[in-house]
Automatic annotation (TrEMBL):
Domain Aminoglycoside phosphotransferase: 14-215
Protein's UniProt name: Aminoglycoside phosphotransferase family protein
InterPro entries according to UniProt: Aminoglycoside_PTrfase, CcrZ_PhaseVar_Mediator, Kinase-like_dom_sf
One Pfam family here: APH
Upper classification of the organism: Bacteria, Bacillati, Bacillota, Bacilli, Bacillales
Superkingdom of origin: Bacteria
Length: 265
């Protein structure tokens, strides 16, 4: 990365799952760099959903480097996820025709419940290594039994990992949702389920969803439960395949909590 910016820049890895993100700084200037970020980033920047895109450069080997503002700020804590600003930003994302048009032009097609289930079952041997197996098998059976009931024909841009550590509050009080590598065109219940099950007490769901901009119905809650369980299984698989067994265990406990709450046996 130094040869792109010049010798007066200091570049350090920024961590993350891909290992392709970096912090760069020189006197009076700071940037967040990423290799082969999606062209989707430009639209997210224009919409004010991620920090401003400063420049994009294509290298001779075909790699594309993007540079964004490196902002002073912090991630939200779990309690702050209840704030109306979080609901408002997620609603803005889900209702953006610009984001949806761009992601569709990049080749994304709407994700269906049957495709979600197919992906999980293709790697079921990974889930079979996770204890307790009973919870995993019950979860898969539930998804199979209800897959036709949660088909929905309204699709939006979903972030697919609305964890609190992906919400950035800048030092000048601007809220962003970052890390869009896994964005999909899908049922909004995919994002809403993870958000509400993880951070919002159930007695506050109706209020939070009204802040988001909808009057929820029974079918939405059914879809949220289905996607919450499927996402929990997907995260268990992902951590298990990376050898992150403690994280897989944490996700397994979250899965059990959802299943116990809704008496899924």
């Amino acid at each position: 990365m130094e040869h792109i910016l010049g010798n007066d820049w200091t570049v350090t890895p920024a961590g993350g799952s891909t290992g392709e993100a970096y912090y760069a700084q020189t006197e009076g200037k700071r940037l967040f760099l990423k290799r082969n970020s999606s062209p989707f980033l430009a639209v997210l920047s224009a919409e004010g959903i991620v920090p401003k895109l400063v420049w994009t450069k294509r290298l001779e080997n075909g790699d594309v480097i993007t540079a964004q503002e490196w902002l002073e700020g912090r991630e939200l804590n779990p309690e702050e996820m209840k704030h109306p600003r979080v609901a408002a930003l997620l609603s803005k994302i889900h209702h953006s025709t610009e984001l949806l048009d761009m992601l569709m032009r990049l080749g994304k097609t709407p994700l269906t419940p049957h495709e979600v289930l197919k992906d999980l079952k293709e790697n079921q041997q990974v889930l079979d290594e996770v204890a307790p197996k009973l919870n995993i098998h019950q979860a898969i059976q539930f998804l199979e039994y209800r897959v036709d009931d949660v088909i929905h024909d309204f699709h939006v841009v979903c972030h697919c990992d609305t964890n609190h550590n992906n919400w950035l509050l800048s030092s000048y009080d601007q809220l962003y949702l970052i890390d869009w590598d896994n964005a999909m065109v899908a049922d909004p219940a995919l994002d809403l389920g993870m958000m509400l099950f993880s951070y919002i007490p159930e007695e506050n769901w109706h209020h939070w969803l009204k802040e988001y901009g909808i009057d929820p119905d029974t079918h939405l809650f059914e879809r949220m439960i289905w996607y919450s369980i499927s996402q929990a299984l997907a995260f268990i698989q992902w951590h298990q395949m990376r050898g992150e067994y403690d994280e897989a265990s944490i996700r397994t406990k979250k899965l059990k909590k959802i299943m116990d709450k809704h008496k899924i046996i």
